[in-house]
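Usage

Read records sequentially. Each one opens with the input sequence:
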Amino acid sequence: YGDWSSDVCSSDLSFAITPDGRHLVTVGQKSPRLSVHRIDYATGALPVVASMQNEDSLLDGHSLYIAELARDKDPTYAAAYAGIAGVWIARQQTNLASHEDAAPQLKAAIQKALSLDDSLAVAHYRLAQQYAWTDWDWPAADREFRRAIELDPNQAQTHATYADFLTILKRPDEAIAHRSEEHTSELQSPY
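and closes with the structure output:
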């Protein structure tokens, strides 16, 4: 089966990443149960389990570990760098990491993702977040949110975050339209 990367990520859960870096296999220790989850970094989050689809899931160390593991298995996998950036953005926004600690990490990861694949929607979404919440460059953030949506109009999280951003800019009609798109995208999501 090739080289598997594995670790124990909690007292109850062991996991392994398949050699291609695209699937997570988990085994519960207390209630032995084998599960296989597709790792889909391109969605903007790391949905290795259902609860990891939203920004809150990016705060734990497991999300960063899994994204870094995928990056280490394939250094040309742009979506893994976007996943790393997402963790650092979430940590900065929730004050789990200072701006001084998080900003260089997220900026480097975003730039690497974009240098590898400029057509990756989630990389543009992360760049929009960087411009909006780290650099306070709102025109650039607006441009990148629109670019991310142009590349993948079905990502609910992008529409939701853009709607929040538009509300701050006092553009309520556009914000409402993106909230509507968010709900439509959630209904179409395979997760």
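Summary fields computed downstream for this record:
- The longest helix spans residues 99-116.
- The chain is about 55% helix and 10% strand.
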